[in-house]
Amino acid sequence: MAEVITMPRLSDTMTDGKVAKWHKKVGDAVKEGDILAEIETDKAVQDFESEFNGTLLYVGTEEGGSSPVDSVLAIIGEPGEDISQLTGGNADVGVSPKEEEKKIDEEHKTENESSSIEETTAEIPAGVEVITMPRLSDTMTEGKVAKWHFKVGDEVKEGDVLAEIETDKAVQDFESEVKGTLLYASVAEGEASPVDTVLAIIGPAGTDVSGLTTDGAKEAAPKSADSENSEKPASQQEKIETTSSDNATGERLAISPLAKKMAEDKGIDVQSLKGTGENGRIVKKDIENYQSETPAAKSEKNAVSAPKNVEAAAPAPINFVQGEDSETPNSQVRNIIAKRLAESKFTAPHYYLIVEINMDKAIVARKEINSLPDTKISFNDMIIKATAIALRKHPQVNSTWRDDKIIHHGNINVGVAVAIPDGLVVPVLKNADQMNYNQISAAVKDMAGRAKSKGLKANEMEGSTFSISNLGMFGIETFTSIINQPNSAILSVGAIVEKPIVKDGQIVVGNVMKLSLACDHRVVDGATGAEFLQTLRTYLEQPLTLLL
Prior knowledge:
This is Dihydrolipoamide acetyltransferase component of pyruvate dehydrogenase complex. Residues 254-291 form the Peripheral subunit-binding (PSBD) domain. It is a single chain. The chain is an alpha+beta fold. It has 4 domains: 3-107, CATH 2.40.50.100; 117-233, CATH 2.40.50.100; 238-291, E3-binding domain (Dihydrolipoamide Transferase); 332-547, Chloramphenicol acetyltransferase-like domain (Chloramphenicol Acetyltransferase, 2-Layer Sandwich), CATH 3.30.559. 23% of the residues lie in helices and 27% in strands. It has 13 helices and 28 strands. The longest helix has 16 residues, at 332-347.
C-alpha cells in the first residue's frame, strides 16, 4: 500500500519548506533511512530521511520549489501501483509533476513559456551563467535593485560588487561569483523582482541570450538614461588601483572592493589572508571566514573603525525648501519595518515597567575593567551582559508566543537595535550569556559597523530571543519601545544622568539610569517582568554579583 509523505515541520516557525535537492527520482527504489531530499526551512537546510521501503512513485514539489507544511511531498509504494486518488487524479503513476509539465509543454507549445532556470538550462549557451535574485533573508520574497555597479556590456570579475540589493531587512552588496560580460539585466535601478527570478546574465561578450529572457531582449540597460550616458564611475575605472595594495614582498595584492571595506571595518590585516578568488584574489567569503587570534585582539582592531555610539546613525538628509512639500519614496526596508512594528503593536498586548538604576558602582567597575590591557567596554556592553545573565534566571521573559503554546528558548540570543540611515536593524549576539565583556564589545562594534556599511549577513539579524534599544547617547532619559517579535520583551535604555538621590538618609549627587521594559502580556505577566527587572537592577547596581 502506498505511503503518502508530507512536507515535515522541521522548525517551530516553519510554514513551508523548499526542496533544495532530491536524492531520489521517480522510479528509484527507496529504503528506510535513505536520504530522500534536502529540505530548506526558515532556519537551515536539513536532510530528510525516508521512513518506508518501496519505490518513489510521485514527488509533489520540484527541486527548488516550495510547498506548505503537511502538503503532499512524495508517495512511496509498489512499482505500478495506482496512486491517482492520492494525487487528485491529475498525476500518472511514476510520473513527477516536472515530467508531466514537460510532456504537456511538448504537446501544447504556448507563448507564455516560463523563464525558470530549470526550463532554460538546456538552451543556455556555453560559458553563460544565469544569476537569479538571491534570497538574502529568511523572510525575503522579493528584492529591489538599489543600485547597479555595472551596466550591460561591462566586464565583470569574480568578487566584483554587481549590484546593491535592498531586502526586507537592509541593503546588501551582491557580489558576482563568475567572470564575464554583463549580457542582460532584468531589473532597472529602483525596481524589484521576486526571489529566484532572473536578475542578470553573464557570459562571453556578444553571446545571444534572447532565448533566456521572457521579453526576448538580447540586452537590457540596468541604469537610468543619465547613468548610461555617463562614464563608468571612478570607483570602477580605478578598480585595479583601489582594490590592490603592496604586500611585504612588494607585490600587488588583489582584493575586491567589498572585501577591502569589510577588512577595514573588522580591522583585519589583509596581508595575512590567502584569497580564494580568481588568481588568488581576496573576496567577501575570505573575510567572512577569517578567524581572529583572540577576542581581545579582535576588540582592539574593531575599536579603530567602529563608531563610539554603536546605536546612533545620521539620518538620510532631507532638503528643506520654504513653502514646498517634498516626498521620499518608501524603501523596502522602511515598508517592512512599518509592517512589522504595526503587527507587533496591534497583535501583542504591550505593557511597560520602568525602573531607576543607581549606576555609581557600575561606573567604578567599568573604569577598573578598562584599566586592564587590551580592554575597552561601554556601559551598553555591561547592560547586555547583565541582561543575558538575568534572562537565565527568568526564562519566561526569554520566550515566544505561538497560537497554541509558548516556546521557552534554550539559547539566550540578544538583539541590539542599530539605527541606519534608512531605518533600523537588529544584529543578534548568539548565546550572549556565555560571552565575556571583550567578546560582547567586539561583536557589537563589529556588527554595528557592518550594519552601516551594508555588510551584515542575513543570519546575523535572525534568531533573537530578547532585544535591547539604547538611546542614552542622545540624552534621552526615558522612552518605551515596540517589541521586536517574535520576542516577548524589549529593554529600552536611557541616559546616565547626575541628580540628587537619598543615600543612607542623606541627599547626595548620584548617577542614575532609567530602564523601561516593554512586555507581551500573553507571555510575560506583570510580576514576572518586575522580578526580571529586580534581578537586572541587582546586577547593575552590584556588578560583582555577575561573578556569582
